[in-house]
Design a protein that fits this description.
The complex is a heterodimer of chains A (456) and B (170). By secondary structure, chain A is α/β, with parallel strands linked by helices. Chain A has 16 helices and 11 strands. Helices cover 51% and strands 14% of the residues of chain A. In chain A, strand 1 and strand 2 form a beta hairpin. The N terminus of chain A is likely disordered. Classes of the chains: A alpha/beta (456), B alpha+beta (170). At the A-B interface, helix 2, helix 3 and helix 5 of A face helix 1 and helix 2 of B.
Chain lengths: 456, 170
Amino acid sequence: MASAISQGTAPLHLSPSRPLRLDPRVALGMIAAGALAVIALWWQDTFFVQGLGDWLTNAGRITGLLAGYAVVVLLALMARVPALERGVGTDRLARWHAMGGRYTVCLSVAHTLLIIWGYAVAAHTGVVHETGTLLTGYADVMMATVALGLLIAVGIASARAARRRLRYETWHFVHLYTYLAIALAFSHQFATGGDFVSNLKARVLWSVLYVVVAALLVWYRLLAPVRDLVRHDLRVAGVRRETAEMVSVYVSGRNLEAMRAESGQFFRWRFLTRGLWWAANPYSLSAAPRPDLLRITVKVAGDHSAALLNLQPGTRVIAEGPSGGFTAARRRRRRVLLIGGGVGITPIRALFETIPAGTSDITLLYRANRPEDLVLKHELDELAQHRRAHVHYLVGPIKRGANDHLSAQRLRALVPDIADRDVFLCGPEAMMSVTRQSLELAGVPTRHIHSESFVF
Amino acid sequence: MKRVLLSTFGTVAGLIALLTFKSQGHPLTTTGALPSAGLPGSGSSSTPTTAPPAGGDTSGGSSSAPPPAASSSSAKAASRTVAGDAVETRYGVVQVQVTVSGNRIDNVSFLQLTAFDGRSQEINGAAAPILLQETLSAQSAHIDNVSGASYTTDGYLQSLQSALDKAGVR
C-alpha cells in the first residue's frame, strides 16, 4: 500500500469542479462592510447627541452593537466554511480569530462601562447606584453581566502568558464558555437596545445573522463530519512506523473525491477508539488524496499521537475537513520551490506529488537536524525521479549567519532562479521565520511566499 | 503592541468622529405642530403660541425660582399665559406653557418637546396628548404617569408645576 501511494502517478484531479475560495481581502471587505452597516443602524436611529451623558451613552451603544456583531464574525471564522478554509487559510483565520477575540472582549468591557457612566450622568446619580439600577431595572441586563464575566474569564485564559501555563485541552474547554456567553448576552440586545426595541427589521436581520452563523457552525463542525463518516465509510487501513519519531496512518474510504481534499490540506482526525474519540487533532495529508485512500504522517509526541501506533485496522474515523489554504491554488508563477522541515514535510510531500509543473520546474528543499530525522525519503526520491524534479536534503545542526543551510546565500546557490519562483514553506515556527527573512533577502517578493503555520 | 495601540486609537477616534457629527445638528421636535389642549369655552383654546410667554426669559431652563407673576391679585377673569421651565430629561427637552384664569387651567401646550433619537420622538408623540388631556381633567400637576413614557412625564410635570407656581395657581 505504501508503495502504491509513493508511486505518485499522474496528478489526479479529484474535484469535479473548482472549489470556491474566498480571497482574504474579499473576506476582510465583507467583515468591514458588515461593521459599517451596524454603525449605519446606529446613525439612522440617532438624531442628536447632546451633553456628556449622551456622548457616553451613545459611545456605549456603538461599542455594544459592534461587540454583538464581532462575536458573530468570530464564530463564522471558526465555522470551518470551506470557501474560507481554502481561500483565507486556517492559520490566518485562527490569527484573525485570536486578534478579533481580544478586541471583542475590550469592546464589551467598554460598552458596559460607557453605558453605566452615561446613564449615571443623565440620571444625576452615582456610578454604583446606576449599576444597581441597570442590573435590577433593565430587562436581561443581569444575564448580559454574567456573559461579560465569562468573556473576560475566557479572555484572560486566552492571553498568551496564561495559555502557556494552561494545558491546551483545559484552555479549549474554557473557551467553550463563549457559546454560553453569547447566548446569555443575546436577549438584552433586543430588550434594551435602543436600535432594536422599536425596529422590527433590524431585529429580524440581526437574528438572521446569528441563526445563519449558528447553522454554519453546527453543519460544518458537527453534522458534516458525521455525514462523511457514513457516506465515505472512513476506516483505519494500516499504520506504519516511518522513523523512531514518525508514524503514518492510512485511512481507507469510498468516493473520497467528493470530499474535495487537495494536497497541502489537513483534516481534524477523530479516531473512534475508547481512548481517542474525544480528541480531534489536525494532521496534514502526507500524500496526495486518492478516491479510496488518505494518508497522514504524524510525529509521535503527546499521548494522543503515541496512541496512534496501536490503532487497529477497521477502526472508524471521523475526518473534519478538509481545511487549510496551503494548496497549489496559491501559486502564481510557473516555477516552484518547496521548503519543508520537521513535521512540516508532510503537506510539502503531498504538494510535491501533485503540484502541476513541467520538467525541472519544481525544487524541494528538506531541512533536518539529523539524518535519522528524514522521513519519507525514498518516496521523495522516487517522486523526484518520476517528475524530473530536484530534491536537496539540508542535514545538519543550525549554524549562524551565512553558513546556515537556510541563509539567503545558500538558498541562492542552491536555487539560482529563486527570485522568480513561488515558494511554499512549512516547518517549525523558528525555521519558518528564518527562512522567510532569507527568502526576502534573496529577492522573493512576500506575495510569492506561501506558508502554513501549525500553531493554532 | 503596535496593533493594540492602533486598534485602540482607531476605535476611539472613530467614536469621537461619529459622535461629533451627531452633535452638530438639532434635536428633533415632535413632528407636526406641537400639541396643545384647552377647555371648551375658554378664550384661548386653539392657538396658544400666539400668546407670548409671560414668564420672562425661558431659555435658561435652570433658573428655578423667578418672582411670582406680578398680576396674581388682579381681576379674576383676566387670563394669564405663563411658560414653565425647560426641563432636560435623558431623552430630550420638555417645556410647557399654561394659560390660567384664576385657579383654572384653561389651556396647556408645549413650547418645546424634543427628542434625541427616533424612539423617544415616537414615545413623545404618543404621550403628549394624553398628558395635556389629563392636566385639564385634573386641573393640576397631579396626574398619572403615562406608562412607557416615564421620563417625558417627569419632565412634563416639572415644567408644568413651575409654570403653575409662576402663575400663582394653588
